[in-house]
Design goal:
The complex is a heterodimer. By secondary structure, chain A is of the alpha/beta class. Chain A folds into two domains: 147 residues, D-Maltodextrin-Binding Protein, domain 2; 151 residues, 3-Layer(aba) Sandwich (D-Maltodextrin-Binding Protein, domain 2), CATH 3.40.190. Chain A is built from 15 helices and nine strands. In chain A, β1, α2 and β2 form a beta-alpha-beta unit. Chain B is mostly helical. Chain B has a domain of 186 residues: Orthogonal Bundle (MetI-like fold), CATH 1.10.3720.10. Chain B has 24 helices and two strands. In chain B, α5 crosses α15, α15 packs across α24 and α16 packs antiparallel against α21. The N terminus and C terminus of chain B are likely disordered. Classes of the chains: A alpha/beta, B mainly alpha. At the A-B interface, α1, α2, β2, α3 and α4 of A face α13, α16, α18, α19 and α22 of B.
Chain lengths: 342, 559
Amino acid sequence: MRTLLTGALAAALTLLAVPGFAAGEINLYSYRQPFLIEPMLERFTQQTGIKVNVVFAEKGMIEKIKSAGANNPADAVLTVDIGRLDALREAGLLEPVKSSVLEANIPAVYRHPDGLWFGLTTRARVALVSRERVKPGELTTLADLADPKMSGRLCMRSGKHVYNIGLIASVIAHQGEAGAEQWLRGVKRNLARKPQGNDRAQAKGIYEGVCDVAIGNHYYMGNMSTNDKKPEQKAWAGAVRVQFLDQNGHGQHVNISGAGVIRNAANKANAIRLLEFLASDEAQRMYATTNFEYPVKAGVKTHPLVESWGSFKPDTLSLEAIARHRKAASKLVDKVQFDVDS
Amino acid sequence: MHPLGWLRTRRTRAPAGLWTLVTLMIGALVAVPLSSIVIIALNPADDIWTHLVTTVLPVYVSNTLWLMLGVGVGTITLGTSTAWLVTMYSFPGRRVLSWALLLPLAVPSYILAFVITDQLEYAGAVQGALRGLFGWTSARDYWFPEIRSLGGAILVMSLVLYPYVYLLARAAFLEQCFGLFEVSRSLGRGPLESFVTVAIPLARPAIAVGVSLALMETLNDFGTIDFFAVATLTGGIFDVWLNMNNAAGAAQLALVLVSFALVLVFLERASRRSRRYHHTSSRVQALPEYPLSRTGGVLTMLWCALPVALGFVLPAAVLGHYALKFYAVTLEADYFRYVWNSVRLATWAAVAATFVGILLAYGVRMAPRPAIRGLTEFATIGYAVPGAVLAVGILVPLGYLDNALDQLSRRLFDLPLGLLISGTATALVLGYVARFLALSYRTVDASLTRITPSMEAAARTLGCGPGGALVKVHLPLIRASVLTAALLVFVDTMKELPLTLILRPFNFETLATFVYQYASDERLEESALGALTIVAAGVIPVLLLSRTIARSRPGQHHT
């Protein structure tokens, strides 16, 4: 009993131990899975000698930073989707950063005008269409998704997913709320099944014959086509062709993964160095080769597989402008009862 | 009012003051996270209700109610029937099933959701076999029930949550006096009729506690309903919070969820209030173990084996299969440190939550005033709130406290403390106590009510104070429930994810957060060894639990 108590006490003390961060170490809040970013952080540490401590979570980050107040330990945040970056900005938690490297490497549409956040990669939310059942030219625009010819042929993940909220917000930005509502109602009418599953599951739906057309982020096609661990996913990807949308109109909707420095960060200088590293040729290449994303830095090659789908014209409307419509997009999904059985 | 209530109140008047104070203090402390959610809800950025009421709120509410009804019926049916059959009848496999029926408790519901969908969807084994049999070639050739639906969610949640009912019902069946049942049988009632009219009413408080725990867990679940694409109130909370950037609106919706849970607690109490039973006799004969016909025995075995097969064997086998294929991914990571972190946290949560649960339950018994009872119910309702929301309710007050301590220390000793609590794993243990106190409090409380007040009357007459009576009389009598409470908290902490993700310090992974990294990137298979370890770590306490219950029957010496 005594040993048990002693052991328990020892364990209690290890819990209480305040983690001591050596000066200069960067504390990073990440919305991205650590196994995706670790190779890059390791390279950064090798090059600079600066250690990076990570916490990965998707919810509650804003509240965590706010409640820590002046003692907030986090220096930078790494995330996918403009929505999360914009929420951090709206909460007033991001520090304006001026860096000639970041400004040179990242096109202006993919960063905040005051340097509150920076896009590091872009991801196109494309149409995935059946190689067998969709003729070339049959579907080329977002508007086509709402066309009666697509009736019962469409698969989508939840309209509330952050990727779809971004897409719907872009439609609102271009057409206004009334136009977007009409469009979303049309899309809902065309669904082959209740919105469900993740982006891969939509390609799988096409492979299985549940539907002919789906919406997904382009890099999932890369992940599936090269998945040696789960070869069945190669078959899903094989049934599907990537179709860039609105090439004769306002261009293909893209979103970003990005980063920002947290306000009053203790290690602001090092945090900026990390961002600059992530925007450098080396890190940009790693993003492209390991996760099939589009590098934001001009001149860095995309993955050969992604390149084989051809180039495309991206939507030129700034992501900042699109992000302003996210709340309206979320309400619109409720209004047309997009995710609800009908 | 309890028949002996007057006696209890009068006798404990003097020391009740101290217990009242202690109970009030602990209750108030544990109620802090929920109170801070209430405070957040009071300051909305903008109004969500006009929008929600006219659009999706009716759907959220009706889906939530159907889900609760379905899981309620599912867990009562599976839990009570299997508990009764295993306790009363002898049939092949009974001994193994009596403990195996608890195993699904160790399986996180989102993992079962994943595995069941994997088997039942188009590409899964079931539909594949059907296609092979009938020569269908595409999903358009035939109809198959949609697994990603309300029905699917009810199935999965019933399968992982029925053990709560089984656990408590079986303990109650074992504890009750079979004389009554025998009398009923000898007066000409059949076994089924006697079960319904005698055994069930006697075990009703235990069944009510079990099902209320299961339903609170149903209310707080996000992973499973998200996977099955069912729009419930919990899904709505996250939508308002993260998509509409309205934390206060989300907190308001969370309070709606809390009110659902309060109704549950009220119903559970009401079902206990009308009749209360205490052991009046310590004479218990050996269990009867009615024999069954050969067919009856086989059917009974199949019925009891079904939930074990679907809720445990299937997911464990699928995870085992993936683990063999992908174990390297888990082992390359810092696997053993994650195991150590998980076990360490779960142990601490179990000890702390049980300790606080005993103090609260006993305090309420000593000072049974409506205000105290009300505060305690409120404090323990955190179990029905989604973990991520409760985590925010914990972060905010801890942030204040940490910053105040830091400033004080800087001023007095010129020593910066930083985030003493919220920056360390201590915050996690506090979070688990706030979240899982319902498990320990309710389990201990239900057990305490079965102890007749004349026991403590005797102890007190012999000179014991209330504290002495607790240690010398109550704890020995309820030790099985205390262990049950601790083990339930342990297993649930091992599985806990959303609160852990938010409250943990830098570079701190547990098995659950490690598995989630992959699961959230649609690659659960690659961390299957981690998931399997969570299940395995849950199995050991579950086996302990089963031994405890089997031995809990007074006069029962074999296991």
